[in-house]
Amino acid sequence: MPEPDGEERMEYPETFTLTVEGGTDARRLDQWLAKRLPELTRSRIQALARQGCLTDAEGRPVTKLSAAPIPGAIFMLTLPPAEPTDILPEDIPLDVLYEDDDLLALNKPAGLVVHPACGHSHGTLVNALLFHCPNLRGIGGEQRPGIVHRLDMDTSGVMVVAKTERAHHALVKAFAEHSLTKTYCAILHGVPPPEGTLENLIGRHPTHRQKMAIVRDRGRRALTHWRVQAELSEGLSRVECCIETGRTHQIRVHMASLGTPIVGDALYGKPALDRRLNHPPQRQLLHARLLALAHPITGKPLRFEAPFPADFAPYL
């Protein structure tokens, strides 16, 4: 592992000087850099290169990361100091399921936005995390400290948060490689086949920019397994979904594609039918029930389960 030049880690830029040795089997420069600097993800390295932080031995910016590294080449990667952020800690209660020095697992309530964005500058999970874990700031980036995955605002359930850079790197890798188990419970209008699998591409809807859709090209692979747990009154069903990928709105899009959208889903569902139910939903009835993974540092198997929220009670 190369040692950084520079002085104080938190106040001055860090510069890593790396020399490509003979015999490397990396096909891309960003792959080679990520292997040499395991605390940085490839996406972080790519972003730094776009900012001009990666240079060659002559000080020229290097932005083409798809080429194979050439033995003998020298690169300098500079990590700029963290930029000031206006994301402030807020004393928002957290339902913590597990916590140690490296990670935190929690049961996110419906209605809580994960990180600040347009229209949600405060009152988010990140604001709550910064209050709960004062040392979290800057882990994985200033705008989304500790965040390695997300749930939609109106989806409840299990989330994990990294508390160190090393844990953040390992968890990002685990999600990218799908080496974990993510199980959700959904209440649907209608009853799909007893069990099945959907595998296709999900991308931005061609005309409705707030929606995602199953597409033929320019999408990302999405894989969902489902199993009907119970047929309910009023033509509803309770379904368990296990997803091997984590695309935006994946379960919502897949269940709607079966003709059985999630109850309360204003974007992909049947609002008119929602209003006629004995218990009209206040949000999409989708809950991240279980997350099982290896501890990012020790490798110990972990299994986190979030109890069902109160608005699921009429359907259990």
Description of the molecule:
With 316 residues, this protein is of the alpha+beta class. It has six helices and 13 strands. The strands form two sheets. Strands 4, 5, 6, 7, 8, 9, 10, 11, 12 and 13 form a ten-stranded mixed sheet that branches. The protein has a three-stranded antiparallel sheet with strand order 1-3-2. Strand 4 (96-99) and strand 5 (103-108) form a beta hairpin. The longest helix has 13 residues, at 165-177. It is globular. The N and C termini lie far apart (52 Å).
Task: Give a quick set of tags describing it.
316 residues, single chain, disordered N terminus, alpha+beta, three-stranded antiparallel beta sheet, ten-stranded mixed beta sheet, 16% helix
Please outline what is shown here.
By secondary structure, the protein is an alpha+beta fold. The protein has helices spanning 29-36, 42-50, 125-132, 165-177, 250-257, 271-276, and strands at 14-19, 54-56, 74-79, 96-99, 103-108, 156-162, 181-189, 195-204, 212-215, 220-231, 236-243, 286-294, 301-305.
